[in-house]
Design goal:
1 helix, 11 strands, PCuAC_sf, Copper(I)-binding protein, Immunoglobulin-like, 11-stranded mixed beta sheet, binds copper (II) ion
Length: 156
Amino acid sequence: MRIATLAAALVIAVTSAAIAHDYRIGSIEIEAPWTRAMPPGAKVGGGFMVITNTGNEADRLIALTSPRAARGEIHEMTMQEGIMKMREVAGGLEIAPGESVELKPGGYHVMFMDVTEGFREGERIPATLMFEKAGEITVEFVATGVGAKQAPAHMH
Ligand SMILES: [Cu+2]
């Protein structure tokens, strides 16, 4: 079952590669990183993507850096007393072997902190992701319109 699911995911990753922008380092695949244009004066922006671990052991996304932000953090959304709050994921975001984790609005995401120049629609924001085992890879987050809920490549 897991192998079938993984095979299906790989087929999707390959067929969408022409329109999306995908990355691979070691056993880690990163599909279509995206972010949103920021309203004037905003200092933080979220980043989203699908991370797949094709290896046999767990890995972790432990850090994010970008020339466009003073620092990066890895966040999760949690419901506290009826209010959605975000907090840093302690110890990094685990990607289990053979599994995919989707970073998306309302869930896990990376956070660009103290952004110096707000993201504009259509820009590609460079960032380096660091994985505990797979190492570092530089990707580009495509900036969609303010308030977008999905990556453009995922719209049907
Ligand atoms: Cu956040």
